[in-house]
What does this fold into?
Amino acid sequence: MKTNFSNYIKKLGIFLMLTVAITANAQENYITLEKAKKAALQYSHDIKNGNLRIEKAAAQKQEAIANYFPTVEALGGTVYAFDNFIDPIALLGIPEIDNVYLASATASEVVFAGGKVKNANKLAEVQVRANQIRAEQSIDSVIITTEKKYWQLVQLQEQQKVITAAKIYLAELLKQQQDLLDAGLIAKNQLLKVKVNRSKILLKESKLSNTRKLALLDLALYTGLGYDTTMVAIDSLHQVVPPEMKYENTVNVSENTNYKLLDEQIQASKLQTKMAEANRLPQISVGVNANKYGTFNADIDSDIQALAFGAVRIPISAWWGKEKQQIKQQKIQEKIAVNQLKKGQDQIKIGIMKSWYDLIDAYKQIDYAKENLDYAEENLDMQRDNYNSGLNNLSDLLDAQRLHQEAKTEWVNAFANYQIKETVYLYRNNQLDAPSPEELSDAIKE
It folds into this structure.
């Protein structure tokens, strides 16, 4: 007895150590939705390019601001001749001259250009805002894609649980059939029917395992996380709150990023029209110039000569030439942008309402799937009791088991589908929990 108890204690100790090791390993190899989204936001090349486009637009804005400041140029040059430019004239005291230099500096500024400089700066600001909106869209896109990939992984894990439960059920049934066969109470074909169904389950288990590994690899590559086949998503598909109790069915078009982009296109078109009109207006510029010239080997130098100048450019032919047609084209483009906004507004409304109804349908799908699962469970229990009582055959029991497995899989799929539909609705209605480009940039720096 002491030996047996000692062996039992050793086995229990080994079991506990293995349990602790497995638990610790499981805690390390897990992934949550929030962890996946955070990693994807920091890793995404689309988001990085979006931030670079914002920086580029900001540089373009600074370039436009530079037009408010004078343009300063300096010019210097010299010429040397192998033969003299001027031979010496002794009577006049003029030495030979074989070189000439010139130094000049000019500062000029356009003081009036029909508003072109002002509108160019406003257009640069529009480009900055547009790129900020596109950066927000990139963030939203990464979040949506990450959630889809993550819930697909969870869906496959839940399907694996369904297959595992079916495998256990068939294993128990197979043992029962083996015992009945050994007792001579059934024919061998009854046992083979169960084995065939178990083989199908094992094949599905293998396929699901490989599909899950591919889904995990897809998520790992998209988020930049390390790929490990033992990693699991710890979120599960749980009961959800009815959409009507969680969200207000409102259509918030003006805050939609696609709507904002279309509105910025209108502003850009208006500014481009004003800039085209400025090509027909006079341009006034003023400036100052200072220059000095002379030779290097003779005392012939000029004093620094300074002068101020002003210029007026009047594009007379622009009133009937190509500039007139350019203005006409820009006004047409402005009308197109307005029509695009109206069209986009309608499409955004339809998209929001569609996502809402899709969410409602996804929730109803969960209810229907749960109802079917209850029926399937009741039918399986009844068929099992009837089979044990000899009231039906094995084929009816196997059919009931298959229907139960399909119903449970449908229930799992309904939950995963709802999670995705909810994310799409939140995105289209501007309720998606996403950081701004500035917040994300600060978080990455930290």
Q: What stands out?
A: The chain has two domains: 34-69+114-150+236-280+318-445, 71-112+285-314. Residues 71-112+285-314 form one domain. Strands lie at 30-31, 71-80, 99-112, 232-233, 283-294, 305-313. Residues 151 and 190 are 39 Å apart (CA to CA).
